[in-house]
Amino acid sequence: MFENNINKMQKREDASGVYFAKVTLSKNYYMENYDESTFKLLGQKYTYVAFTELIHPDDVEAFMEAVDGAAKEPQYVLFRMKGKEDIYRCECGIVSRNDKLPVDEGFMPVDVEFYELMTMADRHKFYVSLVEKYREFM
Asked: From CA 54, how far away is CA 102, in angstroms rounded?
């Protein structure tokens, strides 16, 4: 869904360089499958832990509700997630049912597509860099 990155916002000096990623969660919220962007975001240190351990404790309940609701339809959820820098970043996630994997002891596997919400400061830096870039051409 987020493959059309028209603003080319994957490069970032102060973070992992990732703005969106996708992961499949299985029993006990362990990551069954993830893309290269997820690995860049989490690093090796966090790829073998339960996904819920990476979510800020205040946001775990909302995330669990989204996982439960994904059985009926895709759910949208905002949460803070820890990356390899051990900093919580705001993420917007889409949790949807994964019918390709079998249900394991009552747990329905889910796909989580998430992307980082830019803060106003990040957005300002990004637009200033665009203005500087376009001024060079003028």
From this structure: 24
How many Cβ atoms sit within 10 Å of the Cβ of residue 29?
21
pLDDT tens-digit map of 57-77: 999 999 999 999 998 999 999
Is 107 in contact with 23 (CB distance < 8 Å)? no
Asked whether the beta carbons of 7 and 16 are under 8 A apart, the reply is no
Give the three-state DSSP class for 87: coil
What token pair was written down for 46?
């966090």
Q: Residue 95 and residue 74: Cα distance in Å, rounded?
A: 6
What is the torsional sign of CA 114, 35, 16, 10? negative
Alpha helices, H only, 76-119: none
Contact 76, 91 (CB under 8 A): no
Entry pTM: 0.70
pLDDT in tens, 80-137: 998 888 888 888 899 998 888 777 777 788 899 988 876 667 777 878 888 888 888 7
Q: Which residue has the tokens 């339809």?
A: 73
